Amino acid sequence: MIPSDIDTVIERYAKDRKTGSKQVAQEHFLTYIYVVFDVNNAESFMKRTRGMLCYYINSMSLFENPFRGPQPCWLVLMALVFAFSLCMLADDDTSLIGFFIAAGTLVNGVSLGRIVFSKWLDTGVMIAIYREIIDLIDSTLTANATPVGAGGPSDVD
Q1: How far is CA 93 from CA 86, 87, 98, in A?
Q2: Distance separating alpha carbons of residues 92 and 113, to the nearest angstrom
């Protein structure tokens, strides 16, 4: 059980989930775990995967948030330059320069806005997929839990 195994399982689930249904992705996820690892190691692998997913969700929420990077600052700067170019359009002497500045700022601002929105959407989708995996792991681990007195390993003295 190395972290690359965990990343492989997570990437396979994300790929299956983006291309197929939730049920198919969950079946492939559980099948892969139980085929690669025996039943005794599958539970510990799921627990480690769950811990890694919680870490990924926290890090993506904090570090990959597109509204905390340089892009929003550039968008604000472009808005200020666009406002200044509108003031230049009002003056007859600088109206031609103001037109070119406004057009360039508008094109670059829309492009940067689309990049920020796309990054925000991708981050949100991946966090939702990671939460699906955590829910699947939780439901699988609780379903596989052996109650006390049913002959499980906790009954051995």
Answers
A1: 13, 11, 10
A2: 31
Domain segments of the chain as ranges: 3-145
Residue 35 amino acid letter: V
Burial pattern 47-85, b for ≥16 Cβ within 10 A else e, equals eebbebbeebbeebeeebebeeeebeebbeebeebbeeb
pTM here is: 0.74
- 49 vs 37 pLDDT, higher one: 49
The vertex-76 CA angle with 75 and 78, nearest 5°, equals 65
- Over residues 86-101, the pLDDT tens digits come to 999 999 899 999 999 9
Residue 126 to residue 129: CA distance in whole angstroms: 5
Q: How far apart are CA 89 and CA 83, in angstroms?
A: 10
| Average predicted confidence (pLDDT) for the chain | 85
